[in-house]
Amino acid sequence: MRRVYLDHAATTPLDARVLEAMLPWLKEHFGNASSVHALGRKARFAVEESRERIAGLLGAEPSEIIFTSGGTEADNAALKGLTREGCKGLVTSAVEHEAVLRPAIALRRDGHPVTILPPGPQGCLLPEQVAAALEAGGGLVSCMHANNETGALTDLAALAAVCRARGVLLHTDAVQTAGLMGLNVQTLGVDALSLSAHKFYGPKGVGALYVRGGVDFHPLMEGGAQERRRRAGTENVAALVGMAEALALACHEAADRRAHLVALRDRLVAGLQATLGGTFLLNTPLTAGNAAPHLVNLAFPPQDGQALDGEMLLLNLDLAGICASSGSACTSGAIEPSHVLLALGLPPETAAAALRFSLGKDNTPDEIDYTIDQLTQVVNRMRGRESGRRGL
Ligand code: PLP
Q1: In this structure, which residue's CA is closest to atom 12 in ligand 1?
Q2: How far does the centroid of ligand 1 lie from the alpha carbon of residue 64, in Å?
Q3: CA separation (Å) from 289 to 110, 181, 267, 285, 353?
Q4: In this structure, how many other beta carbons lie within 10 angstroms of the beta carbon of residue 386?
Q5: Mean pLDDT by 10 residues, the chain (392 residues)
Q6: Is the CB of 142 inside a 6 Å radius of any atom of ligand 1?
Q7: Global pTM?
Q8: Is 323 one of the annotated active-site residues of the chain?
Q9: What is the atom index within ligand 1 of the atom nearest the CA of 73?
């Protein structure tokens, strides 16, 4: 059966070139990077070379990169590691990934002042909202670069100006934009930034946290002296080599990938507007510069009082070989509507009938046309069935 993979925000396939770079580190070069013998030194060299490559791509110093087990750990480490004693509080948004929201709620439980702001109308935090929230004080702002459900892009440089003027640190979860948008930490003006390799055609279970030099950071994981005592645990050398290779390829090909994704995204939206226009809401702010290039989020409001079943929508697409998502992968499987769409003001029945298509570098225009055709059939069939049930 035909398979069309449109769930790249959940994960991407491993690039064959990345696998090639990783293989020697899974086979003959198996040493522990902390060992002093030749095999250990070889592994240490690979770890430090990967760090230098990633730092260079972010405009950072190698000593500012801490390797982690992925985006979730990088976010947890940032929030918990940058808000210790004396921190005047955390400001974040209601549309963050759970990897930020859950630690934020845990910090609040532990007695830290935590403010969770609603998003602005485009689905991201606005500098003036953050400035107003910081009137009451604050030590850290955490705000995602692109939302993983809607693709809404935050103007980080503007947020950074607000934070810097008040001596407040800015962390960004750049998991959805790494390798697609420019992520120079100097240009963005951020003090901390989270990455996850499996979102840019690298391996799963590896990520990185950038923390600006001189910023006080307390480790989440304690044990051995790895990562300058900022993250204990034996390094996953092959995964680090893979992440560095994947990020280098993504940055090198970013302009082409972006142009390809924007063309496919616009084709998908225009096609669906032609066949199903008026029956769905577009939750992705597509105006220039406001959205990441790979995401399209739609929701189907009830018609004649009848809601569409989001799970059924996904299952019907799956039967046609189309892999999409109803929200973030971490919440799919749960019946609750997405917290992001609810925070955007969508009624629960509409938010529960949402679809996220996330496009990738290897998708083709033909796959997009197939998806438009299949989704149109599925929606019409489901709506027809609902109407039939009501004897319309
Ligand atoms: N942050 C965002 C915005 C994400 O989209 C994800 C994954 O979906 C994560 C964090 C978690 O990353 P990981 O899967 O590497 O733990």
Answers
A1: 71
A2: 21
A3: 38, 11, 18, 9, 27
A4: 18
A5: 95 98 97 97 98 98 98 98 85 98 95 95 94 94 97 96 96 96 94 98 98 96 94 97 98 97 97 95 89 96 92 95 78 72 95 96 98 97 69 44
A6: no
A7: 0.95
A8: no
A9: 16
